Amino acid sequence: MSSISARRGFFRNAVKALIEARQREASRYVSGVLLGFDDETLKAHGYDREQLKKAANSR
Questions:
Q1: What pLDDT score was predicted for residue 36?
Q2: What's the CA gap between 54 and 22, in Å, rounded?
Q3: Do 13 and 34 form a contact (C-beta atoms < 8 A)?
Q4: How confident is the model at residue 28 (pLDDT cuts 50, 70, 90)?
């Protein structure tokens, strides 16, 4: 593998990891906000409080 290809691979992997980390962070944030709603509202929109708690506390 040439050094240019190796560099591209490194940066591609770094950007991919950064994007995935930000997506997990956004998911945790949204889950935390949704937990502020009452159980009836969550159920009406297809959410489960226990699943949201797990998502909000995930790493």
A1: 96
A2: 18
A3: no
A4: very high
Contact between 35 and 53 (Cβ < 8 Å): yes
Task: Please report the beta strands in 1-59, taking only residues with DSSP state E, as ranges in sequence order.
Answer: none
Helix (H, G, I), strand (E, B) or coil at 45: coil
Helix axes 3-34, 49-57, angle to 10 degrees: 140
Q: Is the pTM of this model over 0.85?
A: no
Enumerate residues 6+ apart whose C-beta is below 8 A from 25: none
Amino acid at 17: A
Alpha-carbon Rg for the chain, nearest whole angstrom, is 18
Summarised one tens digit per residue, pLDDT across range 30-56 is 999 999 999 999 999 999 999 999 888
